[in-house]
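User: quick one, sequence for these tokens?
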């Protein structure tokens, strides 16, 4: 075990009740090049220990910015006093945390040393070269940006009821943007990739040059593109859009704290909420394809992060839990407790959320669509606890009589998530993770990923009326 684990175990010795100690060291680097100039070169380090105590049916939390025995014990005493104060004020108390698949041992993932051994000069050179590649890829490109980011994390979690785990991970990310202009009209092309793993994992499917040229081509192609007709339409969603849908419009509604607050998923376990072609999951591992950006072997309560089936063949099967909510619902924790930094308390968060692939081919899905659109590239969006969503789409292609037609722009897609999933009539046999460069916000950030196959369904398309 790591040195941090040994210090945490020593700090835990002789304590009463439930105690959770979490060491977390995070090193983040960002390099951004815009229009040929280095706009940002930043290195940030945060290291410390988060301490939680459950006493009298209430939580207490404190943290310290040093891995020093005396400081940890002092934070532990502060946490205990906070729990005692909270217990006196609470009307409802936290029940027993119940049984959990607690982790023991080291769970470090591949790629950490590979990324660490690449020099700053290599990373800056790559970022600069890709930004220049964007500018030179199309004559109409007037602005270009390339950003490289990496996050190294070293964690150790020890609890009084038996968790004793440590791991190291690295998450490299690349984002590229091109802005094209012609006759006063502007358009933007955006590409990004992010993984949990090494350099080879980051560029496994495509080179950096591919992403740069695609961003420029998209921005250029969108110049002069028409806008779609508005209204309810048949749409084929690419894995990137499927990922955004299952994360934002489904995943948040099944986080148990939101369920307890009255989300649309409350009370629906065992009920049909989607087509029988839909199986939707959340996993700490990278299913189907390696490198998903939200991968974690152990959550921040020391629980092993398995695969949770949320929807199986259209039936809602499970919510996402931490140890407290699992006890409330009388189920096992799902390993979804996550904290952004040592000074943050763990919250129920998604990891890698996805729809499982089906049996159709994309070619057959297009060929059997008489009238509709193929949508790819999420731009922005919002969803709420009712499952209602609206997302912007970077690229949309018209489908007529089973043939892919012209590119259109300015597209939005909206609807009620469970209603949209109920219209799914084809799911492709391919699968991609596509949101690994993204961050989820819920009081604090979290690294997540989402994806799936191509999916055909019905939704409301924004455009010309």
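Assistant:
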């Amino acid at each position: 075990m790591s040195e941090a684990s040994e210090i945490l175990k020593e700090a835990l010795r002789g304590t009463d009740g439930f105690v959770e100690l979490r060491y977390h060291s995070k090193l983040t680097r960002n390099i951004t090049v815009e229009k040929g100039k280095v706009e940002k070169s930043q290195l940030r380090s945060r290291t410390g220990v988060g301490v939680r105590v459950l006493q009298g049916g209430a939580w207490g939390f404190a943290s310290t910015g040093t891995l020093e025995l005396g400081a940890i014990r002092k934070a532990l005493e502060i946490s205990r006093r906070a729990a005692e104060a909270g217990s006196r004020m609470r009307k409802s108390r936290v029940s027993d945390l119940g049984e959990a698949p607690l982790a023991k041992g080291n769970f470090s993932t591949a790629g950490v040393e590979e990324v660490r051994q690449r020099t700053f000069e290599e990373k800056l050179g790559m970022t600069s070269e890709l930004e220049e590649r964007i500018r030179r890829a199309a004559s109409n490109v007037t602005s270009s940006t390339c950003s490289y980011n990496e996050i190294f994390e070293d964690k150790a979690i020890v609890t009084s009821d038996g968790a004793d785990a440590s791991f190291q991970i690295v998450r490299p990310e690349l984002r590229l943007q091109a802005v094209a202009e012609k006759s006063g009209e502007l358009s933007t092309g955006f590409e990004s990739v992010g993984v949990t793993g090494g350099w080879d994992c980051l560029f496994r499917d495509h080179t950096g040059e591919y992403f740069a040229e695609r961003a420029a081509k998209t921005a250029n192609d969108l110049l002069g593109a028409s806008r779609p007709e508005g209204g309810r339409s048949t749409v084929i969603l690419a894995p990137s859009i499927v990922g955004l849908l299952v994360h934002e419009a489904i995943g948040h509604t099944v986080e148990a704290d939101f369920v307890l607050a009255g989300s649309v998923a409350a009370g629906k376990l065992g009920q049909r909420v989607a087509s029988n072609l839909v199986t939707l999951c959340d996993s700490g591992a990278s299913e189907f394809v390696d490198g998903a950006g939200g991968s974690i072997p152990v959550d921040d309560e020391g629980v092993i992060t398995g695969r949770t089936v949320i929807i199986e063949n259209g039936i809602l099967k499970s919510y996402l839990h931490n140890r407290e909510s699992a006890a409330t619902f009388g189920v096992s924790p799902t390993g979804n407790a996550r904290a952004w930094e040592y000074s943050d308390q763990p919250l129920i968060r998604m990891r890698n959320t996805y729809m499982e692939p089906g049996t159709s081919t994309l070619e057959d899905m297009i060929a059997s669509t008489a009238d509709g659109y193929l949508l790819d590239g999420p731009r922005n969006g919002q969803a709420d606890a009712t499952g209602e969503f609206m997302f912007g789409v970077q690229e949309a292609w018209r489908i007529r009589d089973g043939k892919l037609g012209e590119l259109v722009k300015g597209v939005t897609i909206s609807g009620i998530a469970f209603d949209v999933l109920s219209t799914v009539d084809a799911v492709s046999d391919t699968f991609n993770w596509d949101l690994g460069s993204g961050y989820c916000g819920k009081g604090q950030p979290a690294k997540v990923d989402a994806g799936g196959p191509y999916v055909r369904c019905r939704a409301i398309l924004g455009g010309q009326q």
